[in-house]
Amino acid sequence: xxxxxxxxxxxxxxxxxxxxxxxxxxxxxxxxxxxxxxxxxxxxxxxxxxxxxxxxxxxxxxxxxxxxxxxxxxxxxxxxxxxxxxxxxxxxxxxxxxxxxxxxxxxxxxxxxxxxxxxxxxxxxxxxxxxxxxxxxxxxxxxxxxxxxxxxxxxxxxxxxxxxxxxxxxxxxxxxxxxxxxxxxxxxxxxxxxxxxxxxxxxxxxxxxxxxxxxxxxxxxxxxxxxxxxxxxxxxxxxxxxxxxxxxxxxxxxxxxxxxxxxxxxxxxxxxxxxxxxxxxxxxxxxxxxxxxxxxxxxxxxxxxxxxxxxxxxxxxxxxxxxxxxxxxxxxxxxxxxxxxxxxxxxxxxxxxxxxxxxxxxxxxxxxxxxxxxxxxxxxxxxxxxxxxxxxxxxxxxxxxxxxxxxxx
Amino acid sequence: xxxxxxxxxxxxxxxxxxxxxxxxxxxxxxxxxxxxxxxxxxxxxxxxxxxxxxxxxxxxxxxxxxxxxxxxxxxxxxxxxxxxxxxxxxxxxxxxxxxxxxxxxxxxxxxxxxxxxxxxxxxxxxxxxxxxxxxxxxxxxxxxxxxxxxxxxxxxxxxxxxxxxxxxxxxxxxxxxxxxxxxxxxxxxxxxxxxxxxxxxxxxxxxxxxxxxxxxxxxxxxxxxxxxxxxxxxxxxxxxxxxxxxxxxxxxxxxxxxxxxxxxxxxxxxxxxxxxxxxxxxxxxxxxxxxxxxxxxxxxxxxxxxxxxxxxxxxxxxxxxxxxxxxxxxxxxxxxxxxxxxxxxxxxxxxxxxxxxxxxxxxxxxxxxxxxxxxxxxxxxxxxxxxxxxxxxxxxxxxxxxxxxxxxx
Lengths: 409, 409
Hints:
alpha/beta, about 400 residues, 2 domains, Aldehyde Dehydrogenase, Chain A, domain 1, globular, about 20% strand, homodimer, four-stranded parallel β-sheet, seven-stranded parallel β-sheet
């Protein structure tokens, strides 16, 4: 078979897998996810061996790519958490009666077949599979070449788990090659079988997907996130939040990449820099006059460093901060630090990003931290889902109307 | 300016218009819609004159295209209704507290700039404009050549109304040419300024949009809707519902095009046919053995007649009816008529269309009938919105997180 034929066959099978998942009971979907978790634990040695091969071949992103025993256990535990989440399918989102007696219910349904295109993070293999099974959607996984061996090993475990629970392997499939042409096939929609593509990776991947896709895309653009320290910020809180937002984990999309600071708040900058011990700072002239640092260039404002590097820009007020964010941000997550409620509410209202925070770290941009139980990413588009994407966000709905013979006048 | 330059300029202006709409108060958006309604009434003569020109040139769809004084008044009254709807922006869809004290709110926001591509129905010009203003979105209207003069006349009234309320005309624009190349420009996304395209028209339009669009599409596919008469149907109710579903208004997308009837229910067919007085029937051999009718061919099962024509197919049970719908339907609206609750619930659960009804006419597929106040169409896709699309369905949301200095462990 050619690659195109292979991909079309995967699509056809996924359509059947979606039907099986949809028709399965919530209990069976739960059992399948638990059984997938058990299989991950049972396959830990094979997964670590495959990961060692990926790591040996990798030239970058080692932190995202690396698995060890605790991380494999964390993957399995993540599956257990998804198994424990309430099943969204069939739940009534709303129900109301019309004056003519019609009873209208809005009921959650699966979307169908989802294509997941990702890079560098082998754990996405398990997270995406579990969230799709929980929401009744078949998934076709397409890991990047950097995590291909690890992801294939994780998928082998997942497939065994599915089978043990009596669900077909067509419900969770993986593209059997790292050939980039497989991405093109997914973006073509696999002959109409694909309902949604979710890209998760760097800007070049997401931009390719958005340019080429013939199917709807739930975009996960990179996170060029900002923390804005307002003149009325509490200095200790500002230092703690900026340090956490930047350094807690530098490789996640919710990490702050740019600090915006009011001119009137510049006296706080020394304390903030002290809390950022070990972080490279790149700032404008006003910031550099307070704390010695490298100069920031135009490109810095657009860069998702994913590294212990922070760009710093001095602004006049919250409006200038919001303008900077509108111009350079990716619509992901932004925070304001201030004790002034009116300014905070103005900023929260004006800034049009998926997540806006007041006096909290941008690293809270996470489905688990939001209480969604799990996520497969943070959507930066404005359609269908925005922000953390968990099982509920991967459902559609239909209207079920119950009558007693009503006809329309 | 070339057409492409004109379209890009329209997109740029729409971005500004979206900002003005978003920053306007709910009261100002309400005032603008009321003022648009008044302007429609004041421009009635000009609108009817333009409509006469469209009608003289038209070779089809006269019922959809035709305006008279009552229909112009109905357009104005529709605007008044939208003005009276609650403003969705800024409303909290959900709000909850996390154990760490973070307060998370999900708040409605506009989508941005919407491109509306439609055919034959001049009233869509006003409906779409009002719903977009209500939801804070700028809109670029692209009527088909068949309703171009009527739509342009309606738009002139709307623009005057907007201006009187202090909102810029860039919030509601119309493409100044019936050249089909303008559709291509919209589908390209106008240099990134377009957030969503909504096609509303025949299959060829929607398929072109879905194939070419570089921006998200909220698809309004044609409605090949079904009414299924189960063996346990009440015969009088079945006749009344089928007749209403087919004949109340044959040119709307929720009109039933195919009657599926249980073999055991065929004795009801004579009574149903009597209620369908004046309707051409095309059936399979079993149906034609009860009531004389033309033979139905394969193409009939896929056809949205939009005319007093009904295809009739005999089925064994609800499962065969559901299979027929899955194969030939467009995912729009389907009804079951039965007194047997268990069969009804099985059908409602299995059939995956935007709207499924039990003992009610498919012609209830309408935003007004659902209580949404207004709609710009019935979405047949599964993403973002499904079924009637009113102001709420044209919003996005963001998460507003309020903290007290929380950092992530």
